[in-house]
Amino acid sequence: MILDADKHETEDFWSKARQEVSIDQNIINLNSGSCGPCLKNVHTKLTSLRSSMASRPIQYLWDDCLVGIEKSRSALAEFFNCNPNNLLMLPNVTTACAIVINSLNLPKGSEVLVSNQEYHHILHHINMVAASRGWLVKQFHIPTPIEAADFTEDDLMQIIDQNSNLNTKVIFASHVTSETGCKLPITKICEWATKNNVLSIIDGAHAPGATEIDFEKIRPDYYFANFHKWFLGAIGSGFLFVGEQHKKTLRPLFANKFWPLIEKNRDRLINHKIMPNGPTHLQYGLEYSGVVDRGPQAVVHHAVGFRLEFGDLKLRNRQLKLRDFAECEMQKLGFKTLSHSVVSLKSNLISFKIPHVSSYNLLKFLREAHHLEVQVTETTHNYSVLRVAPAFFNTEAEILHAAKILAKVDWKLFEK
Residue 330 pLDDT more than 70? Predict the structure, then answer.
């Protein structure tokens, strides 16, 4: 049993940690890979902050939120081991990715190397921009355990190298892949990119709260992620890390009033703050896109505080053990895993092969009939992917109950 294995941790410890999360006791949430519940303290602070939005909107937008955002930026910079001036506070990965991809200035004929497991919405945007600018998007294949049981990091690096050439200008890779939870060796990927004069763009949507992020070790050109998954922040909070050398090339999705000034004086204003204890001109120019509620970004530092209090590594290790427990129980029931179990490649997100079904209908059934939250992805192959993503607040009992529910599903009722 997982808790028995954690002799240095008590049930009281995990009970206390669980009490810090806004959990609906009527559901089993095994889908923190899409959205995790919010920490109670984060929700309370955000609700309190938003109380001034209706009555004092100007103070909320230009004082309260900006102060909180800078606290979050500083806390995250220390947590991720980087300079706060290299972090943009944004609503999500989607926004961050659009800023980066739209800012790329590559010659026609350039190749963008991506894996076959990149998130489909992100891949669509890359394909759209590439088509309009004359770039080629080239996919490399990451095999599942069904295809290659002994797959290693070195095998992946060899595949990347074999699929690159003199026209390869960008490699886009997920820190943890969305479909199968494969944790890619991004430090090695970024080292390979630097050596080969290729830009590294890392989609870390599933990484915060699930694996270590240390930008002094990783050294990516660009890295973006969300806080609404395992980090248990509020929906609407994410970030973009930008390598110092690339600050001069980024362009905003919307050019606010600061942008003409920044364009003329980039060298001077890149790291110059617009106000004491405020964002830099570049940060504000890229982050501000009109009157929007930035409250979720202003309370991220409370989520950081939680992980420091309870131990980030401790929380992540708990999740990995729950993931292994889920794999064991599901395999007993005949499910075939699509996720690698090699320590260096696995995350706390695990996927299984199921018949080709309508994801909407199946998920609606599981939610309404069994109060169970998982994720199901339809593929272009003859099967679908069932994804289980436990967080530290989940229990073995929940996983066992979920496994029994899934084992009894009549897949034919949901076939495409």
Answer: yes
CA dihedral defined by 160, 194, 240, 44, rounded to 10 degrees? 80
CB-count exposure of residue 67 (10 Å: 0-12, 13-18, 19+):
middle
Tell me which fold the domain 46-306 belongs to: Aspartate Aminotransferase; domain 2 (3.40.640)
Q: What is the three-class DSSP state of 340?
A: coil
Q: Which residue, 152, 156, 176, is CA-closest to 113?
A: 156
Residues 6+ apart with CB under 8 A from 129: 101, 102, 104, 135
Query: What is the homologous superfamily of the domain 2-30+312-408 according to CATH?
Result: Aspartate Aminotransferase, domain 1 (3.90.1150.10)
> pTM here?
0.95
Q: Quick one: DSSP state of residue 303?
A: H
Which among 221, 389, 372 is positioned nearest to 319, based on CA atoms?
A: 389
Judged against a pLDDT cut of 80, whether residue 95 lies above it is answered with yes
Q: Distance between CA 173 and CA 105 in Å, rounded?
A: 19
User: Which residues have a Cβ under 8 Å from the Cβ of 263 and sit 6 or more positions away?
Assistant: none
- Give span(s): CATH 3.40.640.10, the chain: 46-306
pLDDT in tens, 388-412: 999 999 999 999 999 999 999 999 9
* Residue ranges with strand state E in 20-135: 28-29, 87-90, 111-115
In whole angstroms, give the CA distance from residue 204 to residue 290. Answer: 26
